[in-house]
Amino acid sequence: MTLSKNWLAATRAVLDDIENSQLSAIQRAAELMADSIAAERWVHTFGCGHATIPVEEMYPRIGGFVGFHPMIELPLTFFTRITGEMGIHQFLFLERAEGYGNAIMKSYSFDPRDTMWIFSHTGINNVNIDIALRAKELGMQVVATGSAGESSVSRHPSGRTLFEIADVVIDTRVPAGDSTVALKHHVDKVGPVSTMAFVAVVWMTITTVAEMLTERGVKLYIHPSHNIPGDTTARERLNAALEEYKRRIAGV
């Protein structure tokens, strides 16, 4: 099990690096998000490919709370068919297609008090950059999370990466190639760590947002577990959270 321990060590190293280097960025991002949620507005969340995992981790999720709005495009995340309809080849084309992000943004209503939180390991593909640029045009603050220190040349006509556009960047500190475990007789490594880094950043940030909002006296509509024996009000709390989400989402 040597390689499994290698992956675990690489993951621990990345998480330690985030703790040691990104707390101030997380704090700044959380302040923007707390302001949006306190104003009864949204933190819109977006990613492509496996960078949709942190988006789905936030809400609806046990321990998450109303204020985070997932923007997930099925052709950019649905990988279970791999080939054929909505396969990997189509995805790779779409995430690099200029203008697709602008088309996505047309389907929603935004407000300058909103925050846009975008996840991308590389920060170089057109869809994420289009969305970031349009969010800025609409007056929103943009938070980007990804391996900013390892980002390469942008594919976008602007020549800018996602991390160069964002108001706040949380660097996941993940190696450029993502995978971390070398194998004998193979060029490519196994054992990616970006998902672990993304999810760690999500909950470090969201718990900080929760701390800020409760200190301001803002009521949080938390998504509760409804699987705990004896918790007789779980369904009531769940319904309250969903009703609040429905009320707020009516304008989006």
Walk me through the topology:
Layout: H1 2-21, H2 23-38, E1 43-47, H3 53-58, E2 68-71, H4 88-94, H5 100-105, E3 115-119, H6 126-137, E4 141-146, H7 162-165, E5 168-171, E6 179-181, E7 190-192, H8 194-215, H9 234-249
Describe it.
It is globular, with a radius of gyration of 19 Å. The model has no long low-confidence stretch (mean pLDDT 94). Helix 2 (23-38) crosses helix 8. It has nine helices and seven strands; from the N terminus they run H-H-E-H-E-H-H-E-H-E-H-E-E-E-H-H. The protein is α/β, with parallel strands linked by helices.
Q: Main traits of this protein?
A:
single chain, 252 residues, 9 helices
How would you briefly describe this protein structure?
The chain starts with a helix and ends with a helix. Helix 7 links the parallel strand 4 and strand 5. It is built from nine helices and seven strands; from the N terminus they run H-H-E-H-E-H-H-E-H-E-H-E-E-E-H-H.
**Could you give the order of the helices and strands?**
HHEHEHHEHEHEEEHH
**What is the CATH class name?**
Alpha Beta
The CATH architecture can be given as 3-Layer(aba) Sandwich
Name of the CATH homologous superfamily:
Glucose-6-phosphate isomerase like protein, domain 1
Total count of domains? 1
Query: What is the strand content?
Result: 5-15%
The largest sheet, given as strand count, sense and whether it forms a barrel, is: 5 strands, parallel
Globular, elongated, flat, extended or rod-shaped: what is the shape?
globular
Helix content: 40-55%
CATH topology: Rossmann fold
Distance between the termini: 49 Å
Q: Could you say which structural class the secondary elements and strand pairing correspond to?
A: alpha/beta
Q: Report the uncertain regions.
A: none
Oligomeric state: single chain
What is the mean predicted local confidence, pLDDT?
94
Number of helices: 9
